[in-house]
Design a protein that fits this description.
This protein is mainly beta. The protein is built from 3 helices and 19 strands. It has a 7-stranded mixed β-sheet, with no helix packed on it. The protein is elongated.
Length: 215
């Protein structure tokens, strides 16, 4: 298999031998194999957007652990998190389930989260806006809990954000940010929520503001 990798903050477009296009997001690794009878992609980590050329003689599959997405021709996104694989269908249809096992169909506008065992854990509407944003080098949040927003921002930068106060983890965050702009993100939290931020080497630490004593 051929291995492709992106560094933190890097994105890369890959044209496979069959003409299908893969856009790799930040800090991602995939391995690919294209033959006349099968087209296989294994995602080791990260996120990838697929624009697949239709070929009924060579099904296209994307796998992680024992989870798999199978298509003939479509556009869809795959994101690997620490506990599973998320598949968002932008166009066409995708079957998701266990590798070489039973699968559930997803249509355009639908998405599913799969566990490492290939079982579908949840279904939801596809996050087309979020996916379009990362392909343009942006990160978009709509009332996302701070812990999830920080996890997403940290994917794009070596300057990592750390939440030092448990009370802040569910703070709702909304806005559009340039991918990798950890300092701009922290500054926005200062302005919008009064979060205290501090640069500490390769980290930006977030804490609750210290109440000033009344003289």
């Amino acid at each position: 298999m051929i291995r492709y990798e992106t560094a933190p903050g890097e994105q890369r477009m890959i044209r496979l031998d069959d003409g299908s296009m893969v856009t790799l997001n930040t800090a991602s690794i995939i391995r690919t194999r294209v033959t006349p009878s099968a087209r296989e992609v294994h995602v080791e980590r990260g996120e990838a957007y697929f624009d697949v050329v239709s070929d009924a003689d060579a099904p296209f599959s994307v796998s992680w652990a024992d989870a798999e997405a199978r298509v003939l021709g479509t556009r869809f996104n795959v994101l690997i998190r620490h506990d599973g694989m998320e598949v968002d269908v932008i166009e066409g249809r995708v079957a998701v389930g266990r590798v070489r096992g039973d699968a559930e169909a997803l249509a355009a506008g639908q998405a599913a989260a799969l566990g490492a065992d290939g079982l579908v854990r949840a279904r939801r509407p596809s996050q087309a806006d979020r996916i379009a944003a990362w392909r343009e080098g942006r990160v978009v949040f709509d009332a996302a809990p701070l812990h999830a927003a920080v996890e997403e921002m940290n994917r794009y930068s070596a300057l990592q954000i750390v939440i030092d106060s448990q009370a802040l983890t569910e703070l709702p965050v909304s806005g559009r940010f340039r991918a990798g702009s950890s300092e701009d993100f922290a500054r926005a939290l200062e302005i919008s929520h009064g979060v205290a931020t501090r640069r500490d080497g390769a980290f930006i630490r977030l804490a609750e503001p210290v109440e000033r004593a009344i003289p």
